[in-house]
Amino acid sequence: MKLHELAPNPGATKERKRVGRGPGSGLGKTAGRGHKGQKSRSGDRRLPSWFEGGQTPLHKRIPKRGFRSPNRIEYSVVNVKTLDRYFSEGEEVTPEKLLEKGLVKKGMPVKILGDGELTKRLVVKAHAFSQSAKEKIEKAGGTCEVIA
């Protein structure tokens, strides 16, 4: 088979619809848009889902509440049960290793949470630990190190 012999599978491509090219084409005059009205005009703009015909939309009528703190630190979280599953006895757990294994997002600080059980002794380095996670890691004989 040569490059010039390649062709799309039968039925995989459709002929382009050339509208408004005379009555013989079957798509002349109104070009499949019907008669008059906003939808038949050029520049027919499809309206956003929240548009309510000019009435003040719901999201503008409802009062504003709260705010998003610019100082909030958003962590990539990992539970101790995940550490137990992905790491072996005595291994060092760092944000780099967690990223390598696809457990955290790049460029986000890591927080270890205490859901599940930990059966292995691990050296865990992270930006933050929940109280329960710290207890479970130390109970299993491991250590917790907070990194900046």
What is the fold's blueprint, element by element?
Elements: H1 58-61, E1 76-79, H2 80-86, E2 92-93, H3 95-100, E3 110-113, E4 123-126, E5 128-129, H4 131-139, E6 143-146
Parallel strand pairs: 1-3, 2-4, 3-5, 4-6
What does the model show?
It is a single chain. By secondary structure, this protein is α/β, with parallel strands linked by helices. The chain has a domain at 76-146: Ribosomal Protein L15, Chain: K, domain 2. Helix content is 18%, strand content 14%. The longest helix has 9 residues, at 131-139. Residues 77-145 form the Large ribosomal subunit protein uL15/eL18 domain.
- Named CATH architecture of the domain at 76-146: Ribosomal Protein L15, Chain: K, domain 2
Overall pLDDT confidence: 94
Main sheet properties: 3 strands, parallel
Structural class: alpha/beta
User: Any idea what the radius of gyration is?
Assistant: 30 Å
The poorly predicted ranges are: none
Could you state the order of secondary-structure elements as H and E? HEHEHEEEHE
Give the % helix. 10-25%
Instruction: Using the coordinates shown, work out and report the CATH topology of the domain at 76-146.
Output: Ribosomal Protein L15, Chain: K, domain 2
Form type: elongated
- What is the strand tally? 6
Which sequence of strands runs across the widest sheet? 1-3-5
For the terminal residues, how far apart are their CA atoms?
60 Å
Number of helices: 4
Give a nutshell description of this structure.
By secondary structure, the protein is an alpha/beta fold.
